[in-house]
Amino acid sequence: GLEARPTRARALVPHRPGHTAYLDPPPPSPEDAGVALGSHAVVVPVLLTPAFHAKVDVPTAVTDLTRVSGAQVTVAPPLGPHELLLDAAEELLAAQGISPAPTTAVLLYAAGSSDSDAVATVGRTLAEHPREGWGPWRVAALEGGSTIEQVLRRLPDEVERTVVVSFMVAEGILRERMAQHCGRAGGSMG
To answer: 88, 89, 76: which is closest to 47 by C-alpha?
Structure first.
């Protein structure tokens, strides 16, 4: 989606209103949010990789937003990949009662992109910010990267447990497809 993170944005810039908009249904659309904009706006893409949505769909939506609002619109980079998202994944695992262990691998499962470099950015982020106390952290993707099955086959023999964490923000058809692929590989996606 395309979102301005209203609560956090208001805390940082209390004199500017925040609005939420989505690239796909449900509403509000960027055009809907554009009606209420002032003379300047910053769009924060709530996307976890710099894939097609970030490179094509968001700029198209910003063009529409600018046309409707007349505002000067700046686009921030996507939220991810970023080491804070890896911290959030660890928090989600802890909330599920999964503690770090050298024999536990973590597989971040992304929807992916036809732009395989976008998926590779997640792997580079993992390499730059290793997780302490865990076994290997890897990335798999529905498209544009290694499949769950490929990643599982390449894990070292000392891995006794693999947990899969969804590396995407939205619910919907892609997440459902990811859950089906995870189930076929013998697991469930958290």
So the answer is: 76
Indicate the pTM of the whole model: 0.76
Tens of pLDDT, residue by residue over 129-180, are 999 999 999 999 988 889 999 999 999 999 999 999 988 877 777 777 777 7
C-alpha distances in Å from residue 71, one per residue of 36, 43, 174 = 10, 12, 33
Radius of gyration of the chain (CA): 18
107 in Cβ contact with 63 (< 8 Å): no
State the CB neighbour count (10 A cutoff) for residue 99.
11
Phi, psi of 47 (to 5 degrees): -130, 145
Spatial neighbors of 120 by CB under 8 A, at least 6 apart, are: 145
Residue with tokens 């994944």: 89
Q: What separation in angstroms does the CA of 148 have from each of 168, 176, 184, 188?
A: 15, 15, 10, 11
Secondary structure E strands in the chain = 2-3, 20-21, 40-45, 72-75, 104-112, 137-143, 161-166
Q: How far apart are CA 45 and CA 169, in angstroms?
A: 11
Q: What is the distance between the alpha carbons of residues 65 and 3, in angstroms, rounded to a whole number? A: 12
